[in-house]
Amino acid sequence: MSAIETLPYRPAAGVMLLNEAGKVFVAQRIDTTLEAWQMPQGGLDPGEDAEAGALRELEEETGIPPALVSVVARSRGELLYDLPADLAGRMWKGRYRGQRQVWFLLRFLGTDADVNLDTPHPEFRAWRWAEPAELPHLIVPFKKALYEAVLAEFADHLDTGGAG
Q1: How many other CB atoms sit within 10 Å of the CB of residue 89?
Q2: Is residue 141 within 8 Å of residue 38, measured between CB atoms?
Q3: What pTM value is reported for the model?
Q4: What confidence tens digit (pLDDT) does each residue in 135-161 have?
Q5: CA–CA separation, 93 vs 128, rounded Å?
Q6: What stretches in the chain show pLDDT beneath 50?
Q7: Percent composition of the chain: helix, strand, coil (DSSP 3-state, to 5)
Q8: For the purposes of burial, counting CB atoms within 10 Å of the CB of 58, is it exposed (0-12), middle (13-18) or buried (19 or more)?
Q9: 159/132 Cα distance (integer angstroms)
Q10: Do the beta carbons of residue 120 and residue 105 sit within 8 Å?
């Protein structure tokens, strides 16, 4: 067992945000030149409820306040992903091997004008709406299985016939 495998997973929450057309919000991170897109997600504060953390992360990353979303579903359990070895030693001060996330499917009740990436601590440089079936092809490779698991969790609520 490597030293990385002995590290704990960082508690986190993720958001699959659907617009009225059934498309998913994705964005590109500021801190990378990769063409990868991701859904909003982030670590939970100590003692923070996963749903409260998901709503906080959504607002911090996209400017979308909780009043403009409704919760449709929550993952049945935590979904895990491991960082690649070259990132595990650098991200989060090397304290975690990856994240254990509770995911939420949210319906967006606002308009595109309500999205504001110019937040106090910007994380994203661009955003768009994507077909759910596109998600595993948009994310960095080490999160592909995670995104497939999120799609499986919320399959009953998604129209996945758009791309493939």
Answers
A1: 12
A2: no
A3: 0.92
A4: 999 999 999 999 999 999 999 999 755
A5: 30
A6: 162-164
A7: 30, 30, 40
A8: buried
A9: 7
A10: no
* Residue whose structure tokens are 């607002």: 59
> Is residue 25 a contact partner of residue 19, using CB atoms and an 8 Å limit?
yes
pLDDT at 160: 59
How large a percentage of the chain has pLDDT more than 90?
A: 82
d(CA 24, CA 90): 30
C-alpha Rg value of the chain to the nearest Å = 15
Q: What is the pLDDT of residue 164?
A: 43
CATH number for 4-157: choose from 3.30.230.10, 3.90.79.10, 1.10.260.40, 3.30.450.40: 3.90.79.10
Question: How far is the C-alpha of 41 from the C-alpha of 62, rounded, in Å?
Answer: 11
158/134 Cα distance (integer angstroms): 12
Cβ neighbours around 55 below 10 Å, total: 21
Nearest CA-CA partner of 71 in 52, 45, 44, 43: 52
Q: Domain segments of the chain: what residues?
A: 4-157
**Amino acid at the residue 79:** L
